[in-house]
Amino acid sequence: MPPQDTCVPSSLTLRCPAGSVIVVTSAEYGVAQVDGSCSYTPGDCIADAMSIVVCVSDSVTCSIYATKKKLPECNDQFGSYVHIEYDCVPMSMNDPAQEYNVCQQNSTDITSDRGILKSPGYPSQFQLTPSECFRAIHVPDNKVVRLWLSDLYVSSAGVNCPNDHVYVVDNVQTFRHCGLKRYAYPYLCSSTIIIQYKTTTQSSFYRGMRMYFEIVDRSPNDNCPTGSVTPVPATTPSTTTIETDVTTAIPIYVVLGIASPIRSFQICKGQSHTLQCPTNYVVAVRTNIYGVTPTDQCEEHDASKHCVLATDPTFYCRQSCTYMYTGNRVIPSCSNKIAAYQYVEYQCIPLKTELVSPNTTCPADGSKVPIQIDRRGRFQSYRYGSFVMVKMNCTYRLKTKPGDIMHIYSLDVSLSDYSSDCTDNKLSFIEDGETQGSDFCEERSFRLLYSTCSNEIDMRYIVTDDSMYFSDGAELYIESQARPSDWSCGKPLPTTPIPPTQPTIPIVTQTAVPLTNETSMFARDEIETDICFKGTSSYTCPLGYTFIMIDAFYGVKKQSSNKCGFVQGDCVHDALPSLTICRNDAAGCFMSYPTQRRLAQCSDNYADYLHITHQCVPSRPVGTPPPITVYDICDTNAPIANINGVVTSPNFPTYKQTNTECKRSLVGMTDRVLKIWINEMAVSSDGVRSLA
């Protein structure tokens, strides 16, 4: 299907013909080089936007809502548009012989040029599999496979989908999926593709799996790797496997039962590299970089000289896996050039260290639960592994010996059913002297989550929504080490004790200024201000206007000599979700920055300032004649045809229940775009106020 572009903020509807389903292959925010452009042009700065895609039903349409977003990858510019690429994938075949049961016994290799694989009983009679199912697709020498996971709905419990999953295996890598998923695989260049399917968890919600494939011509420039394809073992092999760079002796880190040193490798076009960890160890990829060189030739990785792009891995390893670079990765942020190499850093981390966490609920008195880390340990949340979430609000005090720091790795953090919204359920790490920290709720791969500043830290485990079907809690590996002399995290210790000072913040009552000679009311220009650490700022809109925060972020100065305030190139972190003040329909706001925030995304440095973007937006008419019209959304069904206006619920701000759905349409203008602000909303049990 042709790519789709839309300006932001706006919505976009993807469409497919009847009998097919939408599978989004990529989604990116883009910053247009030409002002006013709302479509992708080579050379635009882009950033991943797959988080806004929620196309998971068998519908011929899917609506995507693109909000205005500041992009750190693009020097904190706001995205101009969203670029979506998708495929329309058949849900059934005209020829029943081209529909295959992935668990069919005594089955032969699939040799047709297209077809659909389904799990037993898909979709309405979901069945468990007594053992691992295998089907192989045979690929001629001059062909490659295009493969789409057009529907998957199975359990997502456990680390790396051990008990319920779909594996796609070629002679280079393994793709693992479970839970609720739709996915477009990259071109698979292998003589045989193995599809593995297994389900051991029953639920009336589950459907199983549906997968569509096509055999297509292979480009003459593609060099496919050779070698046999081996299914992923159903259970962990009992033999001991030593790393590829160790021949006979067991690595010292295995003897000590700790994580390996950080290792790295680089592969050029057509090359591959196998990562192999010992038994009961897994691969934790720390860095995955594609590099474009000035000569377009493969050179030794140098981030200071090459144009590089850091990405999440496209697949996740367990004990071992093979990386291969086919040489066709286009890097849009590097003038759409093809990367000359791929550079990866990783560690082997242990899976089965001793448990250091109590399998109990939170203390009734709200006290902190102490956890001592003597070199290493494994944390599990209460009832982890039972597939039952329990409402909790616990604070664990992690502590190791003085002079050490701790590294905290994710073995499995599944708290919000694959959603990145950590509002209800989360794991937070909070350094001493801070009130908020780094939050995590979905980290189902093996990776380093957090490194502490000192030998102690608070870890909060919060579950307020226990109705999750595909979440199991948290399992972490924690390891201590002596604090390096050049460790940049946290504040330097003072040479002499300095008594703490509490900044004095005056309490100011804002008074809205009256309007003067204003015959019409429109949203005023956005204004940007900075609040330095320990500083304050007052904002006042005219009478009849609402103060609305459009954006807010904490910033670390790129150059220490810079004045306090945002400069392009500063490291910043979104602050809007954490600011709870000035959230009602008022004309004024008083803000301060009294407690310095440490930003994990900025090398654990402390933020120098808080940057606020605000706007004064009309709320109610002031004066005679009224300079703006107010429309009751339930008064009539008549459309609103005006250049601006205020829409309210009946009797606002006094709450009144409605018995029917109220609707009013807004009539657009050919030379205008529509912009909507929510001045205030408080319905049901939630209080929400934001810019839409």
What order do the strands of the largest sheet run in, or round the barrel if closed?
A: 9-10-17-12-15
Low-confidence region ranges: 235-248, 490-511, 685-692
Biggest sheet statistics = 5 strands, mixed
Q: Structural class of the helix and strand makeup?
A: mainly beta
The pLDDT mean sits at 82
The percentage of residues in β strands lies in 35-45%
For the termini, the CA-CA separation is 29 Å
Please give the domain count: 5
Total DSSP E strands = 47
Protein name: CUB domain-containing protein
Organism: Adineta steineri
Keywords: Disulfide bond
Domain CUB: 103-216, 362-481
What does this structure look like?
1% of the residues lie in helices and 39% in strands. It is mostly beta strands and 692 residues long. It has five domains: 4-90, Jelly Rolls (Sandwich); 96-217, Sandwich (Jelly Rolls), CATH 2.60.120.290; 252-350, Rhamnose-binding lectin domain (RBL) (Jelly Rolls, Sandwich), CATH 2.60.120.740; 369-482, Sandwich (Jelly Rolls); 511-692, no CATH class. The strands form 15 sheets. Strands 9-10-17-12-15 form a five-stranded mixed beta sheet, with no helix packed on it. The longest helix has 5 residues, at 252-256. It holds the Pfam family CUB. Residues 103-216, 362-481 form the CUB domain. Disulfide bonds join 161-178. Keywords: Disulfide bond. This is CUB domain-containing protein.
